[in-house]
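Because discrete structure vocabularies remain unfamiliar, we first show an illustrative case, written as a sequence plus integers encoding its fold.
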Amino acid sequence: MSEEKKTESVDNAGSSDTLIKTDPAKSAAGESVDTDAQTNEDKGSGDETVAKSQYEELESKLGEQGNELGKYRDFFKQVEPLLGELDKQPELVQAIVDG
């Protein structure tokens, strides 16, 4: 390889003109290739059924989590004014932390 060609290839190394533009879903011969992503999309068609007991268990768990979230929101509403005052007085927070 001549010195001129070496320099030219280095100069064009970061150029977008020299990037290879290929479709990752196609093979070197240009044929479509099945990928895991394509087959996984086909599997999630929504025709699946869930057992009634499993559905009821999930529904119960969702209800428990909703109740827990409601309790946390109520607690935060009650504590929010105190946190606001502590935010305004960092020296008080430091005194509490120090003991």
